[in-house]
Amino acid sequence: MTIRLNEEARDSSHGLYTGLGANIMAIRAAIGNSPDLVVKELKWGGLWAGAVMYMDGMADTKAIADFVIQPLLTYDRDQSQAAVERGSQALTHLMQEVLEAGDIDKIADFDALLHALLSGSCILLLDHLTEGLRIGMGGIEERSVGEPITQTVIRGPMEAFTESFSTNTALIRRRLKDPNLWLEVRQIGAVTKTNVGVMYLCGIVNEGLVDEVRSRLDRIEIDGILESGYIEEMIQDKTLTPFPLLTNTERPDAVAAALLEGRVAIIVDGTPFVLLAPGLFVQYFQSVEDYYQRWDISTLLRLIRFMSFFIALLAPSFYIAVTTFHQEMLPTGLLISLAAQREGVPFPAFIEALLMEMTYEILREAGVRMPRTVGQAVSIVGTLVIGQAAVEAGIVSAGMVIIVSITAIASYVLPQVSMSITVRMIRFVLMGLAASFGLYGMLVGIIALFIHLCTLRSFGIPYMTPFAPLYVQDQKDTLFRLPWPLMKKRPSLLGRNNPVRQGDESSPVRGDTA
Amino acid sequence: MKPLLLLRISALLLLVLLAGCWSRRELNTLAIQLGMGIDKSGDDYSMTVQVVDPSKVASRAGGSEGTPVALFEAKGMTVHEAARKMTETSPRRIYGAHIRVFVLGEELAREGIAKALDLQYRDSEERTDFLILIAKGGKAKDVLNVMTQLEKIPATKLYNSLIASSRAWAPSTMITLDQLVTALTADGTNPVITGVRVIGGKAESGGGMDNISKIEAPVKLKLAGLAVFRGDKLIGWLNEEESRGYNYITGNIKSSVGNLACPDGGRIALEVVRSDTKMKGKVENGKPVIDLALSYRLNVSDVECKINLEDPAVIKQLEDLSEARLLSLLKKTVDVMQHKFGVDNFGFSQAIYRADPKAWDRMKDQWDDLFPDLEVRYQVKAKIRWTSTAKNSFINDIKE
Questions:
Q1: Partner-chain contact B54 A337, CB within 8 Å
Q2: Could you confirm whether the keyword Cytoplasm appears in this record (chain A) (predicted)?
Q3: Could you give the ipTM of this predicted complex?
């Protein structure tokens, strides 16, 4: 079944009419006489007539005037006489000898014409001809390339993708100047007709992976794709999981690095977030900066990220479990100190934790959604309420505020926001388990979590690769980031087509070939 | 899918039913017990617990009046009954996992401590890392009823000073419940337990904040040598000197200090920084013999006389003197144990057993008779390592 709006009113899958007037009327009718369609009719004596049309604001008006209308109007009458006699050859003649634009091709199909028109191209139609010309004169207002907002680094490129498809592909191509960088574009979305590009490095990528991406993309039938998130949910291996199965990035260098490892990039027009498939668990702990900074600090930061992951996931539940079930595990001094804080707190530790975590989540959400102008007010109220007043009023203990704060901070250490969202959700489940069954319940929850993680796959590759299944030679870039001379090969599952990425003598330091 | 789902649901339900630790307790519903004492009261046990009031201990200046700990007492035919009866006076359930010290009254100790220990040994909630003390010449309750300075919680003060004194001075010995039970149950061994005493006044007067509102607290707690047990019954006390001798023999010395007379009058103090005791048993002509080899290292720590420490001969002389002095201490201690008490608390029996298990099998029933006449051979080796950060004392250079 194809999705189509306004089935009755429009049947545009036919060729162009012979009369210019009929074509113009049909186009006007198809877009509901919208006034942003600009039609400039041209006439050369009584010889023949034509029309240039474009959507106002989507095409570059000045360029159309200079390079399309101007050459046509100053066109020699004798030659035009000859051109008209040549019939449909006239278009080729115009294309090749008259129009001063580069991106031109012929259009015979009404559907394609409308699509080109609505994508910002300029259309030239001549009377008596059932073909027209599409002239690429896209001039839509675009945001310029700016700095990344969600994935910042201290050292590394400060460029981020924009909403423009062509800018994005160019940003990637600028980093990989190789003919093997292949791009396939398809339109997805019956109404939005969004350009979705699949980019990969032929010769490194596993063909099966590209085929799988293609077939999953081709299966999508939806009215609109407004962001890569639509695509992500439509093509991931499993819907019922809190874990993200595709990574997304707004950094061209991250995409280039992923392509070099044999992953596939999915670029969606209209969003700066590019999807990378497959997305494996460890990749959510890797930041591009790991490879820009020295390996030793990168390794330390990796370990800190894994630690933060567990803190963000477990700190509140561990606190609940230990203080309500396993007080004997605490050092005596700490127990007395915690007990003193809890004197007079009316709620059980679980409710206390839930209250604080919810307050924090609300504050966070407000921080994202609120209009910038009221930011100050919200943050003052938030700090006072969450930090001081709650403790001083004796509603929550100071220890709990510390736990909630460290949890909140730790969850933002992960370079991928999608993973910290996951952690935030699972945290509440574990808190419930800890409050009901103590450490025992927590452990059951953690085991269930790991079983779930081990069942996941992303484009056929086990999610926990290279931990489970274990690939010893791939451990060089998981918990640790070994120096480059020791990383001579690509990750084994992704890059098995073309495993070697460094020459043996590329460093004065002798490394093994691992 | 259906059976799998059913399986998952039942697994979840089992989680609820099998949860062994379904006993959620909020911190502010617990009375955290740090000290525990058991006394004899007629035929009953009288149990005393020292419970901490967290809000008065925590660092934030509360300024609230009253003592940081509370004492509750209850009597019962068995220890556990007494413990539960405590709820008649205590507003919260007593939580015993964090006991630091377990004090037994001397009267109870003379009648036998074993029965009073089982509850602590058996209860799943207890951590058995607390230290055991005997209230010398008094009741456990009196010991727990004294406020102490510096450490707000008296039980913690006892715990810390027991650790500190056994590490730095060595007249006391740390014994935990499992060590005590081992000593009680193994063949031929008997425990010793450090004693604690209330000094400076009546225990009742030491229980208020006024006791610690002075620079020198009128009523104090003091460690008071080792209590010697035969089986689980207390039979007597070692004085400080003998207690240190005991610790030398059992190899319990971390550090200690001794003094010697200088040849020209005055005294010199030597710090023991390392001590290693090798106790070997053997059977010669059917008679058990113990070889005690003790080597230790000394620092010259305090010179209060005129002496030339730069002369190796003088150092050698000091070493010899120290050896002779330690030897006499060891002999005296063994003699007290052999003839005054007649019980083997040193673990000599274990040494014999390790050397010759068959011979020990023949001896073990008459060990109490053999022990007083047991031959102990000593070998003491002292080594002065350095003289701290000075050589000769400035006392030598004082102009007269």
A1: yes
A2: no
A3: 0.82
